[in-house]
Amino acid sequence: MIKVDQELCDHCGTCVAVCPMDCMLLSENTLHIVAEQCNGCSACVRVCPLGALIKIEKIGELSQ
Amino acid sequence: MRPEYDIVVVGAGPAGSLAAQVASQQGVSVALLEKDGEIGIPVRCAEATSEVDLQRLIDIQPEWIANYVTRARLFAPSLQGVEVPLPSRGIILNRRLFDSGLAEVAARTGAEVFTKAYVSAVDFSSQTPLVTVNYRQEVKQIRAKIIIAADGVESRVARWAGIRTQTVLKDIESCAQYLMGNLATVTDSIDFYFSSRWAPGGYAWVFPKGKHVANVGLGVNCARLNNHKPLALLDAFCQELLPQGTRLATVVGGVPVAQTLKQIVADHLLVVGDAARQANPVTGGGILAAITAGKLAGAVAAEAIKKGNYSAKFLLKYQREWERTVGRDYARFYQIKEWMLTLTDDDLNRIADSLQQYAPGDLTLLTVFKVALTKHPRLLWLALKLFAGYN
User: Fold this and answer.
1) For residue B338, how many other CB atoms are within 10 A of its CB?
2) Could you give the 3-state DSSP secondary structure of residue B66?
3) How many whole angstroms separate alpha carbon B166 and alpha carbon B172?
4) If DSSP codes are grouped into helix, strand and coil, which group holds residue A3?
5) Contacts of A61 (CB under 8 A, 6+ apart)
6) Across the strands, what pairs with A4?
7) Is pLDDT above 50 for B120?
8) Of B70, B110, B139, B182, which has the most beta carbons under 10 Å away?
9) What's the DSSP call for residue A50?
10) CB within 8 Å of B228: residues ≥ 6 apart
11) Chain B within 8 Å of A42 (Cβ-Cβ)?
12) Whole-Å CA distances, B106 to B18, B29, B112, B172, B332
């Protein structure tokens, strides 16, 4: 499961370009992730220039 | 905002504004929709381009130009540098003024321009596509015979028409840039730094906008990012090479270094600019590509409206024109980019070493490329393949 740090996100859309499942929704000023569509590949986490996306393995647990 | 237009252009960057301008010049009705509150902001661009190439495409206004450059300095990981004159004078743009200027020209030719107009959906399944726009706290619906998707690297409009736009990691660079002040810039040179320390699979740049101010940034090939974050890499770069610099603005973004999408038209749709992955795969430069594509798409879209034919088959004319004019060259550049990705820091240092025998002024970009090839002889076949019949 991928979480967005809304404070850090600059809405640049790099994650949208690489998401194979089309689950990154960039609206005017928020990035929203359609969790049901996400396959957990983490491409978005890797490409974010700011580190604003975080993969969470289990609820409540942060992965590195 | 009217309920119906011949053409809706999504995104008012250079590609969208040129498409809107060229189409409205033909007398068709055009709405140009920009999601941000001000056209040209944020500036997600290093802002360098070639003056003559841009001049061939548009009338350049003096206020759009921040600075002129005549040479490039390329630095190896060892920081040994080589200097080459640019094939023609380069300009560092004020993209903020440039982008709003281009939208203004589109408006003067008759296009209706809307800011804070966010397109949340396009329904391509109906007879005439239906565009849903969030505009000033209201949800509006517009019918348009043709949609031009100029919605940038984050494009989703093309996906709604069933075009696959997802880009693989090696075909996109993750970038960070500061507008930096308090520098003593070399105002007539654009500087490139190649090193896996700062920009694995890409490069760092210093593009002067004036005596003390420059765009300082870097792009990392996403397949080489591992756990690095471009903004952190940029901080390391600045700390080492420009410690006195002060950060006046921060931007980040993705730059396609891909081949153009296989499909850039569909029924009722044309895709242009970064949305179509139309950028120079070696440099990541996208301004000239976006303007070229925007003009071609605007002309074909207007013709389609006049003929009442909005089929992919008709709109394919735009794709063919793109391939004929720029696409073919970019396909070659893509091969060069793939080759550059194989170069190690040692390779780059050796190339810089061998270039020291040339007197400054004798070097050209072609010499640099030739020397690079002799240091990497196995790749000579690629050069032969690329440049056979290429003038």
Assistant:
1) 14
2) strand
3) 10
4) strand
5) none
6) A53
7) yes
8) B110
9) S
10) B200, B220
11) no
12) 7, 12, 8, 30, 33
What's the residue count for chain B? 391
* DSSP symbols for B42-64: S--S--EEEHHHHHTTS---GGG
DSSP B248-293: EEEEEEEEE-SPPPS--EETTEEE-GGGGT-S-TTT---HHHHHHH
Chain segment B254-267, per-residue pLDDT in tens:
999 999 999 999 99
Given its phi and psi angles, is residue A11 left (phi above 0), alpha (psi -120 to 50 degrees) or beta?
left
CA pair distance B1, A3, nearest whole angstrom? 36
Nearby residues of B320 by Cβ (< 8 Å), 6 or more positions away: none
Over residues B356-368, mean pLDDT: 78
Instruction: Give the pLDDT band of residue B377 (cuts 50, 70, 90).
Output: low
For A13, counting Cβ atoms within 10 Å of its Cβ (0-12 exposed, 13-18 middle, 19+ buried), the class is: buried
Whether residue A22 lies within 8 A of chain B, CB to CB, comes out as yes
B174 with A47: Cβ contact below 8 A = yes
- Separate counts of helices (H) and strands (E) for chain A: 2, 4
Interface test mutation site (partner B, options A10, A11, A14, A27, max chain B beta carbons within 10 A): A14
Span B225-233, average pLDDT: 94
**Tens digit of each residue's pLDDT (9 = 90 or more) over B180-226:** 999 999 999 999 999 999 999 999 999 999 999 999 999 999 999 98
Q: Is the pLDDT of residue B91 over 80?
A: yes
Q: Do A17 and B256 touch (CB under 8 A)?
A: yes
CA angle B178, B184, B189 (to 5 degrees): 80
Using alpha carbons, list the distances in angstroms from residue B36 to B136, B235, B252: 11, 28, 16
Interface contact A47-B172, CB threshold 8 A: yes
Query: Rounded mean pLDDT of chain B?
Result: 93
Q: How confident is the model at residue B390 (pLDDT cuts 50, 70, 90)?
A: very low
pLDDT at A62 over 80: no
Q: Which residue has the higher pLDDT, B23 or B226?
A: B23
CA atoms of B150 and B167, how far apart (whole Å): 16
Rg (CA), chain B: 21
CA–CA gap between residue B199 and residue B197 (Å, rounded): 6
Is B137 touching A (CB cutoff 8 A)? Answer: no
Q: Kindly state the helix (H) or strand (E) to which residue B349 belongs, with its residue range.
A: helix B345-355
CB contact at 8 A, B129 and B43: no
CA B32, distance to chain mean position in Å, is 20
Residue length, chain A? Answer: 64
Considering CB atoms only, which of A14, A19, A50 is closest to B153?
Answer: A14
